[in-house]
Structure formats: C-alpha cells, structure tokens
Specification:
Layout (H helix, E strand, L loop, with lengths): L1 E4 H18 L3 E6 L6 E4 L1 H18 L4 E10 L11 E8 L21 H7 L5 H11 L3 E6 L7 E12 L2 H5 L11 E5 L3 H13 L4 E4 L2 H7 L9 E6 L4
Parallel strand pairs: 2-4, 8-9, 8-10
Antiparallel strand pairs: 1-3, 3-7, 4-5, 5-7, 6-7
Length: 241
C-alpha cells in the first residue's frame, strides 16, 4: 500500500488501449468527478490491472461506438463506518456492445465467455473478468455487471473500493489549467457528444469560458469578426487521419 496519483493511474490504463481503440475507430474517454481525490493510498498495480482488463474487454468486444471509463467518489456509508477508510471510489466502464441478459451469469466464471461464437471470433481464455473480480475483492470491494441487452445501449462493468485519500503536491498542481490557458475562452470541436461533454467539464474546472460545436465548419461560422466568439484564444479539435 502506497500513495499514488489516481488520475495518472487512470490515464496510464487508457494509454494502453488507445491504439487498439483508434484502430477500431472507437471513442475512448474518461470522466473523473471533481470530488474524486487526486491521490489515494492503495495498491496501484492491482487497480491499474483491473482497469486495463475492463477496458481491454470493452474495446475487444465493441465493434462501433464508444468506451467510457467513469470515476466517482462518496463518503463511506453507515454500514462501513467501522472501516479504516473514509472514501469509496466507484469505477465503471461503459461500452456500446450488447450482452444478452440471460448470459450475464457467465461473465465472472473462470474459463467462461458469453457463448462459443465469442471464442471463435475473438479468442481469449475467459479469465480476464474473473481475475478482475478477484482483484477487486482483494482490495475490499466488489464488482458487478449490467446490460440492457440492446445493441447501442451497451453494457457496464462497475466496481467500488474503499480508499484513504492523501495528497501529493505534484499531483495537486496538475489539476490547475496550464498557465497559457488561464482566463482564456476555448473553442471545443468534436463530433462525439460524450467527448464534448467531458471537455466542457474540464474547461469549466479550469475556470475558462468555452463553446462546444459538433463540426469544424459550425465553429468556423461562429468565429466571425464583430462577434463575441472572435475572442477565442485556443481551440481543441479532434483530427482523424
């Protein structure tokens, strides 16, 4: 158990799957609530392994759409007041793949996959989710999965673990906007609504004003002389090769 930067842990897990997601033209994003502590005391290796396993599983079985990792935080509940920890972190990985509800019970079994065709198409041993569930339990938490069984609405794998927040000076500094962005209005252009929402939250957390647009040409029309949007100083645009 040691102190570590939680956001850095999340970002390192995303980095490992970024190339594969891009290859499949999937959106890969993370949403970390403002109340989530920047640093915690825990087992960074186990946590990163669970996140990588869940993200890899989501990217592997999702053919189109997005994979979003969300992190939230709550105080311990009344039932957990005897715990040495004072916060509970809630992680969820949501994708746009479909898992039939009648096959959900197979997900956390050793050497088990949703059906035989899954093994033929994607390969794998069926160990990743079972190992992840065990690692979460070793950290004092529990894991669950849910799916509406409808293509496009996807599946969600979620887990919660008790943690002890701490502080790391270098980590705290990363939460503030870069010096060159402070006080500037920012134009965000992205065709994915999840990305626009997450970027809007980040820009707001930095204390900046911003405008969100779905397409570059929409943003270009707004940025005309004599209009308020002409005061944009930076833009964040998604570019694809």
């Amino acid at each position: 158990m040691e102190p570590f930067d939680l956001r850095q842990c999340v970002e390192s897990a995303l980095d490992l799957l970024a190339a594969k997601a891009a290859q499949k033209k999937l959106e890969l994003a993370a949403e970390i609530d403002a109340e989530v502590p920047q640093a915690i005391i825990g087992d960074v290796t186990r946590l990163r392994q669970v996140l990588v396993n869940l993200l890899a599983n989501a990217v592997k079985f999702t053919d189109q759409g997005e994979v979003v990792l969300s992190v939230a935080s709550n105080p311990v509940s009344h039932d957990e007041e005897g715990s040495p920890y004072n916060r509970v972190l809630r992680f969820s990985v949501r994708d746009t793949d479909r898992i039939p509800p009648d096959r959900m019970d197979r997900l956390f079994r050793l050497f088990s996959q949703v059906d035989v065709s899954t093994t033929r198409k994607y390969g794998g041993t069926g160990l990743g989710l079972a190992i992840s569930k065990r690692l979460v339990e070793m950290m004092g938490g529990h894991m669950r999965a849910e799916s509406e069984g409808v293509q496009g609405k996807g599946s969600t794998f979620a887990f919660r673990i008790p943690v002890e927040p701490t502080s790391i000076p270098a980590a705290v500094a990363q939460r503030h906007a870069p010096e060159e962005l402070r006080g500037k209005r920012i134009l965000v252009v992205d065709d994915n609504p999840t990305n626009r929402r997450l970027l809007a939250l980040q820009v707001t957390a930095w204390g900046n004003g911003g405008d969100m647009h779905r397409e570059r040409r929409a943003g270009a029309r707004e940025d005309s002389p004599g209009r308020e949007s002409s005061t944009w100083r930076f833009s964040i645009c998604k570019c694809r090769a």
